[in-house]
Amino acid sequence: MKNIDLSNITDAAVQSFCALQNDRTRHLVQKLVASLHQYAKDVQLTHEEWRAALSFLHACSDISSESRSEFSLLSDVLGVSSLVDLLGGKPGATPGSVLGPFHSAGSPWLNNPAHLIGANEGVPVLFRGRVCDVQGKPLPFASIDYWQNANNGLYWQVDPQQPSDNLRCQLQVDADGMFEIATIRPVPYEIPTDGPVWRDLVQAAQRSSWRAAHAHIIVTAPGYARLVTELFDSEDPYLDADAVFGVREALVGTFKSTQDSALLSRHGMEGDNCLVMDVELRLSQTEYE
Ligand code: BEZ
Ligand code: FE
């Protein structure tokens, strides 16, 4: 009989997973068990507190559905999603930032330059970007997956008034790695405030529910690591209080007015008060083991 006590319970629990076949999975699980045990010891966790934590997780599960993951939101507001993004960063490459819950695969492929404004109200803007490697060499085979919210703050998935292709697209960059997207200026919006993550955690901590205005972008190119990131607006009031820790200096750009008539006429925007943000997206090469 093994006498389990405070001195050996962590070891016993960690060792109980030693037959996990995959090396990486075994490492992840054993380290997690050891860290949880250490946490419980550090804070001298009580039964009542542990039950409360489990109830919170139950509430997260209850409100989750196919189209809503309270656990993703939990990861976001704890900063873990952003931490994982940052851990995956490579020197010289554009930093990653949260994917968020509103990416839907299968956005329409549009010609580059792309026009997304359609019937949307809002400030017309142009994202003018260049995709390159960490040395600055253009990557002409890159493609872009782009999505953002409408002027009312909502993404199409949660707004029945918007068509399903609103303010999202995929496109191929040109031979110089360049792309242009005519759209409306993204606006700040709140993380979901009807669930336990907001109620019991973020609001309870008197934190802000706001995300700084941003456009989402995924860049892929053969041989290069996929970049999932966001572009922020330097004039946004929530840059210092983004609820999910997504803001990185390298991702903040400034919208400037433009007199470039060739650029404006390409987008049918002559005479409009159009703003342009120039962005450079640097990808690191895929690491082969
Ligand atoms: C978003 O970027 O759309 C988002 C990210 C985290 C939580 C909620 C929304
Ligand atoms: Fe978003």
Write up what this structure looks like:
It is a single chain. The protein has 289 residues and is α/β, with parallel strands linked by helices. It contains seven helices and twelve strands. The chain has a five-stranded mixed beta sheet, with no helix packed on it. The model has no long low-confidence stretch (mean pLDDT 95).
Proportion of β residues?
15-25%
Strand runs, count: 12
On the 0-100 scale, what is the average pLDDT?
95
Q: What structural class should be given to the helix and strand makeup?
A: alpha/beta
Task: Measure the end-to-end span.
Answer: 44 Å
Number of helices: 7
CATH superfamily of the largest domain: Aromatic compound dioxygenase
* Run of helices and strands: HHHHHEEEEEEHEEEEEHE
> If strands are numbered along the chain, what order do they take across the biggest sheet?
1-5-2-12-11
State the name of the first-level CATH class of the largest domain: Mainly Beta
Total domain modules: 2
Instruction: From the alpha carbons, calculate the radius of gyration and give it in angstroms.
Output: 23 Å
Ligands in the model, by name, code or SMILES, are: benzoic acid, fe (iii) ion
- Describe the main β-sheet briefly: 5 strands, mixed
What global shape is seen?
Answer: globular
Task: Kindly report the CATH topology of the largest domain.
Answer: Protocatechuate 3,4-Dioxygenase, subunit A
- Return the CATH architecture of the largest domain: Sandwich
Q: What ranges have pLDDT less than 50 throughout 5 or more consecutive residues? A: none
Helix content class? 25-40%
